[in-house]
Amino acid sequence: MHSSLSLLAAAGVASAATTYRLTVDTSKTFQTIDGFGFSEAFQRANQIINLKDPVRSELVDLLFNETSGVGFSILRNGIGSSPNSTQDWMNTIEPVGPAKPDDTPTYVWDGDDAGQFWIANQAWSYGVRTFYADAWSAPGFMKNNSNDAGGGYLCGSPGAPTCESGDWRKAYAEYLVQYVEYYKKNGIDITHLGFLNEPDLTTAYASMLMDGAMAADFIKVLQPVLAARGYGDSVKIACCDATGWATQRNMSRDILADASAAPLVDVFTTHLYTSKIDSPLPSEGQHAWMTEYADLGGNWSTAWFSAEAAARNDTKATAGDGLTWARNLHTGLTTGNLSAFLWWVATQDTATNGNNNEKLVLVDDAENSYIVAKRLWAFAQFSRAARPGAVRVGVDVVEATSKCKAPVNSTASGLRTIGFKNANGDVSLVAINDGAEDVPVSVHIDVAKAASVEAWATDATRDMERQAAALSPEGIVNLQAVPAHGVLSVIVRAA
Ligand SMILES: *[C@@H]1O[C@H](CO)[C@@H](O)[C@H](O)[C@H]1NC(C)=O
Ligand SMILES: *[C@@H]1O[C@H](CO)[C@@H](O)[C@H](O)[C@H]1NC(C)=O
Ligand SMILES: *[C@@H]1O[C@H](CO)[C@@H](O)[C@H](O)[C@H]1NC(C)=O
Ligand SMILES: *[C@@H]1O[C@H](CO)[C@@H](O)[C@H](O)[C@H]1NC(C)=O
Ligand SMILES: *[C@@H]1O[C@H](CO)[C@@H](O)[C@H](O)[C@H]1NC(C)=O
Ligand SMILES: *[C@@H]1O[C@H](CO)[C@@H](O)[C@H](O)[C@H]1NC(C)=O
Ligand SMILES: *[C@@H]1O[C@H](CO)[C@@H](O)[C@H](O)[C@H]1NC(C)=O
Ligand SMILES: *[C@@H]1O[C@H](CO)[C@@H](O)[C@H](O)[C@H]1NC(C)=O
């Protein structure tokens, strides 16, 4: 058996550094984790489809494999509303609308769904069981601006101008459930359904405006349609994918103010483009999901930690760094009380949006190759430690040498920590080190019947690389340093 000292020495840690004892406290419980994910909307899925094997399978494995890849566990699909699938448009299942809302609709399933059905099947084959189908807009014929793009309102929404053609709210609900039905018939169970994307923003691609009161109204139309068509229990309603935390907070507040709408919504969903997380969203038990965010302003970068830009506090230049995303994930799951955290698109090519930094993986179909940004591994550090159904638990941080056993403010250690108890009994810890020196730690994770321990590190030179770790006979004590400007995940597997 190794002594603490020999393991510390093996890890190459200077003896002068303070050692911190990190104890995962499973008696302190917080929110349940639903998972981590991304979208391949806007035809991005085709960039994977167009690769040739074995490269294509390798990339799919990288995204979904929970042993060797990221283990993403949620896929967010865009429910198309446009006449065609070119550029950033996604084609609708109802290309031609009937004259009146109550007339029989004509739906069309093309078996492709802008590439999303294929990626959904890949996800399913890896055990992904959480599928979030989200509409950016209703088709144009249901809206007061007669266009699925360019903002406008759903005809019949309270406060929106009345449309000559009538009230299309129920027709929109039926249409959304029809999308769920097509996936169901073809082997994929959609678990979450959203009817808005950035309802506070008007864009040249699909977009539709709603405020909180309109959303509350529509939830009361949608839920009975879901129930009538047999999805009342299996499909949860998600709302509202606002552009930022502050807008979503207001929309959530307005939905909760409607006592008959509030119990019908299961998940409050938000993006973080226009405002960041400062405290939890209001909730009456609804889970909070961050369903879309990315570094849209940066140039394509694979960097983990841009030391020079960080020294200048240049947050724009570090916005896509892997370490930045490890912190974003940590803030979301702690300060934000999030149950899910989804990056925007997994893949993109150099031609799209000036080869910016909004993707995790740069794909070149012509060369049959791809390049991975290090931030993908920040997601892996969390996604492999917290599987769907895990409960976030407490972590106490104390100076190992201190006689005082009271937990210290973990900020003093320079570490950001988070713990999870998985549904299968596995208990894990993720620790982020912001500092320029390795932080020696002793990790205490008490699992009744522990079978094994794994430690994984990502930093400038490592991508989720397995680290030496051992379970001690007298309880579970594992020794590792959290690498400078790096992330360490420790997972104790239950027998
Ligand atoms: C596809 O639909 C968009 C949105 O309505 C439209 O602007 C565009 O011209 C269409 N493209 C083609 C090739 O039909
Ligand atoms: C995931 O990767 C592991 C290790 O490479 C492999 O054994 C396993 O078959 C993969 N899982 C799936 C579902 O392909
Ligand atoms: C749709 O309704 C909004 C809100 O009243 C209004 O500003 C807009 O002009 C309407 N669009 C059309 C095409 O009527
Ligand atoms: C949220 O609502 C408050 C109070 O009504 C308002 O002052 C604030 O501007 C709103 N914030 C956003 C981002 O809409
Ligand atoms: C955190 O979210 C859960 C739902 O996942 C909710 O029940 C709980 O009240 C939230 N906690 C805080 C502090 O907002
Ligand atoms: C992206 O690259 C361009 C051209 O080199 C440069 O002008 C711009 O500042 C870069 N943007 C960021 C956010 O670094
Ligand atoms: C960067 O920010 C940190 C923390 O806010 C501060 O201590 C430091 O002085 C700043 N550095 C520069 C170069 O502005
Ligand atoms: C911990 O210390 C930091 C920095 O001094 C401070 O910002 C933070 O509020 C403290 N946290 C707690 C929980 O006391």
Automatic annotation (TrEMBL):
- What residue range is the signal peptide? 1-16
One family from Pfam that matches here is Glyco_hydro_59
Task: Identify the residues that the record assigns to the Glycosyl hydrolase family 30 beta sandwich domain, covering every copy.
Answer: 389-449
Question: Glycosyl hydrolase family 59 catalytic domain: which residues?
Answer: 39-382
* Keyword terms, alphabetized: Hydrolase, Signal
Coiled coil regions in record: none
For this protein, the record's InterPro entries field holds: GH (IPR017853), GH30_C (IPR033452), GH59_cat (IPR049161), Glyco_hydro_30 (IPR001139), Glyco_hydro_b (IPR013780)
Family statement: Belongs to the glycosyl hydrolase 30 family.
What this protein is called in its record is: Cellulosome enzyme
Which species does the entry assign this protein to?
A: Sporothrix bragantina
